[in-house]
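call fold target=Ribosome assembly RNA-binding protein YhbY
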Amino acid sequence: MLTGKQKRFLRSKAHHLNPIFQVGKGGVNENMVKQIAEALEARELIKISILQNSEEDRDTVAEKLVAGTGAELVQIIGNIIVLYKESMENKQLTLP
């Protein structure tokens, strides 16, 4: 689990990122979870946007992504979810 200090640090790092995935009408599926897991391995910190036409609410989407990828939920702001997962091979961020 992340501490408050670590979450603050990750939020500051995520501020400048653009969302690289969008959850739309189809919601979260296995393929999307797999792609997000691969992106987390490559980048460690990613943003995912939830489109207006998504049938699942943001909390449900966040829960499914966290459960499917094993990532940590950093924050949910509006329709943006920020996820972090420490990379095994491409470690870039050092948590405080």
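return ok
Residues 4-84 form a domain with the Translation Initiation Factor IF3 fold (CATH 3.30.110.60). The first helix runs from residue 4 to 14.
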